Each structure stands twice: as structure tokens, then as C-alpha cells.
């Protein structure tokens, strides 16, 4: 009797486990298929868009009038940004595919620049036309490779989930068709040197901050530590450590870290000349004892005492009990925005807890400020009539193609918003209009009622 | 000789006391604290500044306790109209003039802020009509006990408008409630770096916390900096969410650790990175050498190591 009951109970348990396992399995499969489908969609969208890209670039080659060329180029820009987006949805992070992505975004930049330009005044140059031609050729290559991969994926029912797992585990999967295919695309793109794409491309590449031209001689680790002491007050019991940069860096630097009872302070110093790149210390700041204004004066004093001269406060913000300030150089009453230094001040005792001269070091040099060719009044006429101008001055900014230009700077208001408007002081072009950020309501209070 | 010295000390002490007291009374008269308020500041002083500017009709924005551009222009207009130096800084002379010219119904303003009401603080108008979810000001005050409308400098400003609160003239209770509330009160808005919302920051803090909560502060800033460097890089998506949720990009996203609740440290780290601190030297990849499975990542040029992570190009 007991035996029969036991057998019955066990049978039920076994069947129950089986049913449960089957359902779990079914659910897992459904989720897998769902994920797989997302990948498939991104992939097929990508190949479709590359097809389209190739065609669109082809049609622009035969166009002549501005009316058809500008929209077509804008279309190319849209397609590249969509493809870029689709690549971002595929699990390709752990394999080399960045050259292709860079290539896509370069086509996008190029077509955008050309599309927004007034082609009646400044038609496509011979050089740009040749660039378009080679882009047409190169997009054909990529299209070809991708179509091949697409064909194999469809024919052999290849799954992106396998690719993801293969890449994540680092093991070679049995069938590497997709990975190999994408590697081939990457190799093809790598083959295009910048010369093939014309000088426009190389000039458009963002200039990376390089500290190679800094004046001064190379410093040793010991000197680095003594420089650090000029910026940070180091207690007696503090532990210090200096480490050289790795081989992959564009420039050489030392990382200094100081550990004492108050917390940790870190700092990077260039090897050439021994300039501070950034400083950061972390400690708890529990209350506010000094005002933001006092803190900004502290920060300015800190700069002046350390040979950063002619700096002017540009922006200030308070986050909890910390003040964050941006200072820029001011030469002959002209603000030089690329030469910016950021400083963080603790509002409990007014000490400097952060410093960043990353931009400043890359751009600072002795400058000749050119005379503006356009007067302020002439520049004012270029501004939207609805904007009420409140303040004005001269400044140097980096424009969209990353060149330094002299501009008339205006602060103006339109309804409740404040705008910074830059008018080129040489050509009178509107270089940039920036809507300044307003404070954001804290949603916790709005959603939760009472905080 | 000795008694003389003691007398001297006593005199000095007495003087100090007197000074301190007179200083206090000045503070009471103006209600502002001693700080110079400048653009970007946050807090009670800013709430008062905005309320007073609104009372005089210079400021039409929300009273939210963040000194933004709208407050800045309002202050400058005020300074111009009242013949002060136009510098956009609320220093001593400006605050004194402002306190003389306007009233500040602190209790009313703070109550509205606490309740999350929509409200304004214009002079010459019944306060009861200036708040959105229509609540009787008087009854609400009775309900919350001891929140009399404080009237600093209000008596000098003319326009006796809040006669309904005559019963709450006990100055002592008034200041007490005022200070109690002042500490409990928070501004209803916050500064955010250009181009980022609080939600972006929260999402990044989630990622940073999931990826590097065991790391030192600087190690967390470094992870946030990598996310930002990827935003600028042409080889990566252009949005915060695009970068974070790129398949395979972050292990914390893949295994769900991103949904752990981040602490304040990771949020601070994200803010630092957004505000321009990049401890990585422009890295766009990082990996933990002990757990990295991909061989390819080792081929990237390495910039430096922070904590357990190696940062590379």
C-alpha cells in the first residue's frame, strides 16, 4: 500500500517536473527567438540601408542643380546615421568593426556639410566631386561584402545569437561566417587610405588634443611629485604613488595618487614640461558654509597663484555642496573659449577639490588677436529680430569645422530662454546659436508629491 | 594692573557680543544670509531672491531655488532700475535695497514649495489667488501648525497685505518655524550640465554602478568618462542609451547588474565626468585583465590602469 502511494507520488513528481521543464524550455526559446529576431532585423535593415546608400550616392553623381542635389545629399546623411544606429544594435562591440563605423560617419559628415551649404554660391568643387565618386566606389565594395554575408545568413539559417555567444566567450564557433564576413568588410574599409577620400576628409577629422608641443623639458617621477605638491596639500602621513602612462597614450604623462586620512587625491601631469592635466579629490562634503561667489573667488586665486594668468569666470553651477566653475582666458578683452579650465570647489571649507586643464593645455599659446572686420552694430543686424540682446563682446570660438574664429558674442533673450549667439567678426556669418540650459525641475518632487 | 586687563577683556567681549547681536538684527531685517548670491547658486537665499524679485514684478519665472538665466536678467533689471551697479550679483547693497523695496512671505512660499503647488508671489495681489491647487491659505496654515507667515522687512515695505495673519505676530515662533523649515526645504529644481537631463545622468549612474561599484571614486569617474568618450567617437552610437545598451558593450548590461540601485557616489562620478573630468586620457575601451575573455581587447593600445581596469584606445 505504502509502496503504491510512494510510486504514485513519485510518478506525479516526475511528470510535474517534466511539464515544468518543458514550459521553462518553451519560454526560454521564445525569449531567445525574440532576441534573435531583433538582431536579424537590425542586420537586414543595415544591409538594406547600405544598398540604398550606394544608390543614393550614385544618383548624386549625375545631378547638377541645387534643387535636387541638396535634398539627395541630406538623404545620404540620413541613411548613414540610420546605418550607424543599426550597427550599434548588433553585437559587434568585441570585434574590430570601428573602421567601418568611422567610414559611415565620415560619409555622413561630408554629405551633411555639402547639403546644408548654399550650392548656388559655392557649388561642389572638382575635388569634392571626386570624393563623391570614390565614396560611390567604396560603398559598392561594402555593399558587395554585406550582401554576401546576408546571402549566407539566409541560406544557412545562421543565428546572431551564436555570434554573440562566440564573441562573449572568446571561443571559436563552429561556423564563423558572420564574424568572418564582417571582418572582411572591416579589412576592405581599412584599405581606403584618407588620400582616396580627398583632403576634405582629413581636415574634418577632429583634432585630438596633443600635448606634444608644450614648452619645457621632460620631467622625472620625482619632479612630478614635487609639482603635485604645488597643487595639493599633502599631509605627512600621506601615501604617494607615481605611475607612468601606458604605451597606447598619445602623449606621455605621470599619474600621481595620494592617499591620506581625508581621502584620495589623483592627478595627471604631462611628462613634457610638467603641466597639470587634471586633479580630482574625493571626500564627503556634508554642508555648505561659503557661498558660490566666495568659492569662485577662491578658484580664481588658485589659478592666479599657479601661473594661469588672465583667466575670467565664465560659468558657475552649484551641485549639492560643490561649486563647479569654468574659467576662460581673456586677452585684450577677447574671451578665448577654447582655453578653458574647470575647477571644483568644496563649499564647506572652500578648498579646491578638482581641476581640469585638458582643453587649456591643448590650445593655449601666445596669440595675436585679429581686428574684427565687422563692427558690433553690423553684427547685431545679423541676429534674429525677436531676440532681445542683453550683453555683447568679442570672443574666439571653435566653429563647426573645428577652426578658431573671431566672433562677436551676444547674450540675448527670447521669451523665457537665454541664448548665446556668435556672429563671425570677419564674414558676418551666424556661426553658432546656443540655447542655454535652464534648471530642470526635480521629478521626484513632482511625481511623489512631497519630498 | 590685572583688574585693568580683565576689564579690557571684558569690554572687548562685550563689544563682540554687541556686534554679533547687531549683525543678527541686520540679518533679520534683510532675512538673506551674508553670502553674495551669483548665477548657478542653489538654495534658500535664491528662493528668497526670486520671491522678492517676483514681488516687484521683475521675475516671472518659477520660484524654484536655482539661480538661472531668468533670475539673472531679472536681478540685472532690478539693479538698473534702482540705480545700483549692474553686475548680476546679489551682494550686500543689492540685497538691502531689495529687502526694503519688497516683501517676502517665507511661510507662504515654503509651504507652496513643500506641497508642490504651482504658485506665484507677486506684490499687490492676494496670495490666496496665486496658488494653483486652490487651498485656503489660512486653514492650510492652521493644519500644519506653527507656520506663521514671517514678515521680514515687510513692515517697512508698505502695502500691508496679509492682515489675515494678524494672530501670528509672535516673532520668536516665526523665526523658529522659518529656520526649521529652511533646513527641511529643498529647491524644486536643479542645475544640470548642458545637453544632459537628470534621467540621462541616472541611466549613466546605473551603468557606472553596475560596472564598477567596487572601484575607487576615480575608477568610477573613469568608467563614466569612457561612456562619454564613446558618445563623441564616430565608431559608437551617439546617444547615452545607445552606448550603454549596445549589445556586448558592458557586462553589467548583459547580466542585469545595471538595474541595481546606484548610490550617490556613482551619480557624483557621472556628474564629474560630464563636467569635464576624464581620468582615462581619452580611452574608449576598458577591461578587467583578470576576467576579460576577448583576445581582441588585449590588442588595443593601453593608456593606463585605474584600479582593476585597464583603459585603452
UniProtKB/TrEMBL annotation, chain A:
Residues 180-370 form the Sporulation protein YpeB PepSY1 and PepSY2 domain. Residues 373-432 form the PepSY domain. One of its GO terms (biological process) is spore germination. It comes from the Bacteria. Residues 27-162 form the Sporulation protein YpeB N-terminal domain. NCBIfam families: spore_YpeB. This is Germination protein YpeB. It comes from Perspicuibacillus lycopersici. The lineage of its organism: Bacteria, Bacillati, Bacillota, Bacilli, Bacillales.
TrEMBL record, chain B:
Coiled coil: none annotated. SUPFAM superfamilies: PGBD-like. Residues 126-192 are annotated as: Disordered. Residues 43-91 form the Peptidoglycan binding-like domain. Residues 128-148 have a biased composition (Polar residues). Belongs to the SleB family. This is Spore cortex-lytic enzyme. It comes from Perspicuibacillus lycopersici. The gene is sleB.
